């Protein structure tokens, strides 16, 4: 198909990218760009939707009305992020029902981080602090991503993610000012979530096959390793202020590099979790499939109502 595209149309796309302007839904774009963009947006949308589950499990067990209200708002925000993103994917010609099927049939991935269990209420705080913190590092550069609808959705999403991070940190600060048992609960949650949070940035640069093309198309602005380093450098002083220890004996400031050095990530675990073998993968997908089945009658009723209205108009 690309062979039949007139040279000036292709040039217009290249120039849009070079000038840091946005590609819009009606513009011509290479098939590869469209496919990459749909895949990235869909995976991002799935992550937001699946990401509601680990914390959603604590809504009924939040220790106070205030904590429950905050957590409810946060989980609802994640649903909203999923909806903006599915809409952005639709502007590229993707079908939302098809994307959902790909997710529940295990044909499309979502962030590995949501396949770990939330064992205590401290996990809610640590997810806000570390997981939403890592999401911010990943997503702030995406506000300048070359695809217009995605970049614009990301601006609003990032504002909400910073609220999520603050609420997590504030929750942890409160717990760290509490009893010894509460402090131990926070430390335990940090121990379990630290390494999976570092994995959120994806495989190391030398093992990230799609990165170079995504950087050339300005879908991505920084490499996985650059963003991971930025996250570590941002988080270390926050951990100190909180009074928790990050579970990495190799973590130390390197004055020559002007960055923190850190230990090796267990990429075997990452690959296992991302390909379906994490502790919660089966449960997360089963839950999502159930929600889809339970909602089928709503979709059918909405479609029937729309058809009836169309009939009445004609
Ligand atoms: Fe989100
Ligand atoms: Fe969030």
From TrEMBL:
Gene Ontology BP term (one): phenylacetate catabolic process
Pfam families, alphabetized: PaaA_PaaC
GO MF term (any one): phenylacetyl-CoA 1,2-epoxidase activity
Cellular component terms (Gene Ontology): cytosol
Signal peptide: none
NCBIfam families: PA_CoA_Oxy1
Protein name from the UniProt record: Phenylacetate-CoA oxygenase subunit PaaA
Organism: Paractinoplanes rishiriensis
Lineage summary: Bacteria, Bacillati, Actinomycetota, Actinomycetes, Micromonosporales
């Amino acid at each position: 198909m690309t062979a039949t595209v007139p040279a000036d149309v292709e040039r217009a796309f290249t120039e849009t990218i070079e000038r840091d302007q946005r590609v819009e839904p009606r513009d011509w774009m290479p098939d590869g760009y469209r496919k990459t963009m749909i895949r990235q947006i869909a995976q991002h949308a799935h992550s937001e939707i699946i990401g509601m589950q680990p914390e959603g499990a604590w809504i009924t067990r939040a220790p106070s009305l205030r904590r429950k209200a905050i957590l409810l708002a946060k989980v609802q925000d994640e649903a909203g992020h999923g909806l903006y993103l599915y809409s952005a994917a639709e502007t590229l010609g993707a079908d939302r029902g098809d994307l959902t099927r790909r997710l529940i049939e295990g044909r499309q991935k979502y962030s590995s981080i949501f396949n770990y269990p939330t064992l205590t209420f401290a996990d809610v705080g640590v997810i806000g602090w570390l997981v939403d913190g890592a999401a911010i590092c990943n997503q702030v550069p995406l506000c300048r991503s070359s695809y217009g609808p995605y970049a614009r959705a990301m601006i609003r999403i990032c504002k909400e993610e910073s609220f999520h991070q603050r609420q997590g940190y504030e929750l942890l600060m409160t717990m760290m000012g509490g009893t010894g048992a509460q402090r131990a609960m926070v430390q335990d949650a940090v121990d379990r979530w630290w390494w999976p949070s570092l994995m959120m940035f994806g495989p190391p640069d030398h093992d990230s096959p799609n990165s170079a093309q995504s950087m050339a198309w300005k879908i991505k602005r920084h490499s996985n390793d650059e963003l991971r380093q930025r996250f570590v450098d941002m988080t270390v002083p926050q951990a100190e202020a909180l009074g928790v220890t990050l579970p990495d004996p190799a973590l130390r400031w390197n004055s020559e590099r002007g960055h923190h050095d850190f230990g090796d990530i267990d990429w075997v675990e990452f690959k296992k979790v991302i390909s379906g073998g994490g502790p919660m993968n089966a449960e997360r997908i089963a839950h999502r499939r159930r929600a889809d089945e339970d909602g089928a009658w709503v979709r059918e009723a909405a479609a029937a109502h729309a058809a009836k209205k169309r009939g009445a108009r004609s």
